Amino acid sequence: MTDSSSFPSFLFVCTGNICRSPLAELAMRREAEQRGLMVDIDSAGTGNWHEGDRPDPRARATARRHGLDGNQLRARQVRTVDFDRFDHIIALDRSHLAALKKLQPAGSKAHVSLLLDHVSGRQGDDVVDPYYGPEESFETTWRDVEAGCKALAARFLDRPSTC
């Protein structure tokens, strides 16, 4: 069994863990895979409304259009133990960031941030929740999470080689 503490870890958090955070999890898995890296990546929601459910069918369809399979993912709620398990806990909007900061235990190792704060020129922006919008809004969400994950990967996964 591999010790997950030996490689970087990321938890993506949205409201119900069925739209934005699963897409971010899949986008970050792709970034790590393209770099050939072992990375602990998961997603969760601030609420437990969809606990155990697969991502929204529209989110899964969006993932499929981008060559990814979200069928294996299941929604769960963020827990205080996540602040010790993950190096980076990434909120998809400012309401999630506020909720995470309230939940974060004193002295936890996790760095809590807003996803689009990692994208140049997007500091303070939220990834818009596509749940109540048309199916096309999932593509907008995909573009945002993909940009955020590319920026996170460039910052935290790309390391200069040492010879």
Main pleated-sheet profile: 4 strands, parallel
Find the CATH superfamily.
Answer: Response regulator
Write down the domain tally.
1
Strand order of the largest sheet: 2-1-3-4
| Poorly predicted sequence stretches spanning 5 or more consecutive residues | none
Given the C-alpha coordinates, what overall shape results?
A: globular
Structural class: alpha/beta
Q: Briefly, what CATH class?
A: Alpha Beta
What is the H/E string? EHEHHEHEH
Explain what you see:
The protein has 163 residues and is of the alpha/beta class. The protein has a single domain (4-156), classed as Rossmann fold. 36% of the residues lie in helices and 12% in strands. It has helices at residues 20-35, 57-65, 82-85, 94-103, 137-156, and strands at 9-14, 40-45, 88-91, 111-114. A four-stranded parallel β-sheet has the order 2-1-3-4. Helix 1 runs parallel beside helix 2 and helix 1 packs across helix 5. The protein is globular, with a radius of gyration of 15 Å. The protein starts with 8 loop residues before the first strand and ends in a 7-residue tail after the last helix. The relative contact order is 0.21. This is protein-tyrosine-phosphatase. Its EC number is 3.1.3.48.
